[in-house]
Amino acid sequence: MLQDITRRCARWWRDPLFHPDIARMSERERADLPFDPAALSAPASGPDQARP
Fold first, then answer.
1. Which of 4, 14, 26, 39 has a Cα at 20 to 30 A from 48?
2. Distance CA 26, CA 40 (A)
């Protein structure tokens, strides 16, 4: 049971769109969420320099 909880938390920690609160939102509500386009378009310069 603890492994299942840890696995679910790790999933949305890596990808915030998997967070349960966001999963319950409608498409319109998710479209209103702010995001940083630069974080999506600019790759990190190396594997050890991941973006925060």
1. 4
2. 22
DSSP for the chain, written as a single string: -HHHHHHHHHHHHH-GGGSHHHHTS-HHHHHTS---HHHHHS--SSTTS---
Residue 20 makes CB contacts below 8 A (sequence gap 6+) with: 12
pLDDT digits (tens, 9 = 90+) for 3-45: 776 776 677 667 777 788 888 999 999 899 888 777 766 565 5
